[in-house]
Amino acid sequence: MRMAIQAQSRATVITDLFEAAQRFISERWQLGEATTDDEYRVSRTIAAAMSALPRFEGPRVQRPSKALLVTLAPEEHDLGLELVADAMQDDAWSVELWRSVDPTDLTDGSWWLDFDLLGVSSTYRSDRLGTQLKAVVRSWKAAGKPVLVGGLSFRRFPTLAEEVGADAIAQMPDQRW
């Protein structure tokens, strides 16, 4: 374990250790065989393990790039966002996490919010999500800011990122889509 931490990012180590557990509980939840409490326990265990690992300290830059990572209302999940945030912070990004954000606030704020990149995580696909996310992506791209997407919606529906116009899909290290 110590060697893995020294040779790889914290996100890679956590993904290698817990991906099967996360996938298992997600599948059980989708089938109605696991509760939100079960899912919460798994996510808290992963988050605790991540926070116990030493943070990589890269060289300091004058003004780090700033990322805003969000879930769109009504979603409030945060494990994937926390892992991506930790990986970005290891790479010297300044990151804020906002949960259950009204898409209109993101669309309206694309010009005045002081972030260099927007990351949107989604677990559930719906027509409404597609419409809202298209508007958010269009607005942020018009402001010259790239949009990164990720989460189970984009894993289950590989064309969704392209449909909404996202610049890239966030994948955890070694994740096979």
What does this structure look like?
This protein is of the alpha/beta class. Helix 4 (79-90) links the parallel strand 1 and strand 2 (94-101). It is globular, with a radius of gyration of 16 Å. Helix 2 packs antiparallel against helix 3 and helix 5 (103-109) runs parallel beside helix 6 (127-142). A five-stranded parallel beta sheet has the order 2-1-3-4-5, sandwiched between helices. Helices cover 50% and strands 15% of the residues. It has a single domain, classed as 3-Layer(aba) Sandwich (Rossmann fold). The longest helix is centred in the N-terminal third of the chain and has 21 residues, at 10-30. The model is unreliable at 173-177 (pLDDT under 50).
Shape summary: globular
Termini gap: 26 Å
By CATH, the topology is Rossmann fold
Total helical elements: 8
| Rg | 16 Å
Biggest β-sheet: strands ordered side by side in the sheet: 2-1-3-4-5
For the record, the CATH class is: Alpha Beta
In total, the number of strands is 5
Indicate the proportion of strand residues: 5-15%
Give a brief rundown of this model.
By secondary structure, the chain is an alpha/beta fold. The protein contains 8 helices and 5 strands; from the N terminus they run αααβαβαβαβααβ.
What features would you highlight for this structure?
globular, 177 residues, single chain, Rossmann fold
Helix-strand blueprint:
Elements: H1 2-7, H2 10-30, H3 36-52, E1 66-72, H4 79-90, E2 94-101, H5 103-109, E3 117-121, H6 127-142, E4 147-150, H7 152-156, H8 160-164, E5 168-169
Parallel strand pairs: 1-2, 1-3, 3-4, 4-5
